[in-house]
Specification:
Elements (H helix, E strand, L loop, with lengths): L1 H14 L6 H13 L3 E2 H8 L6 H13 L3 E7 L2 E6 L11 E4 L5 E3 L23 E4 L6
Parallel strand pairs: 4-6
Antiparallel strand pairs: 1-3, 2-3, 4-5
Helix pairs in contact: 1-2
Bound molecules: zinc ion (2 copies).
One zinc ion binds next to loops.
Length: about 140
């Protein structure tokens, strides 16, 4: 399993023409393992104290964002939450559901919503990201 994730991270970086640095591989692995959006602080927590300082994580995320391997899923508690972009199309990210009771967020990857139509002349919609709120199965 562990080796598998390393391989996968390596392949993703290769396809995006990025060098396989320790930090990139480690962050991709954290996001793969977690399977849901994480803030920079949560990523850093999961990486453990050892090797990566804030600046490294910031720069590494920026490089992954730039090539589109990772994207910003949503903002919560004043922090962007990042996730792997492989389950999203260019024009649409899957909806995210946040439980108003326990605060958990879920990726609803099986839902594909129709794209919103441009409201007025002059607006060009590039991307649609939807957030849903309610109660999760554990709280309902
Ligand atoms: Zn809940
Ligand atoms: Zn998601």
């Amino acid at each position: 399993m562990k080796r598998n994730l390393d391989l996968q991270a390596g392949k993703m970086l290769g396809a995006a023409k990025l060098y396989c640095t320790k930090g990139r591989v480690a962050i991709l692995k954290v996001l793969m393992k977690t399977g849901k959006p994480l803030s920079r602080a949560q990523i850093s927590q999961r990486l453990g104290k050892k090797q990566f300082d804030k600046v490294t994580i910031y720069r590494t995320l920026a490089s992954l964002l730039k090539v589109g391997l990772v994207h910003r899923a949503f903002m919560a508690k004043r922090a962007w939450h990042f996730e792997l972009a492989h389950r999203c199309s260019e024009s649409q990210c899957h909806p995210h559901f946040t439980c108003t009771s326990c605060g958990s967020t879920y990726c609803l990857t099986e839902i594909l919503l129709p794209m919103a139509k441009s409201p007025h002349k002059g607006f060009v919609i590039h991307r649609q990201q939807v957030r849903l709120e309610g109660l999760c199965p554990a709280c309902a």
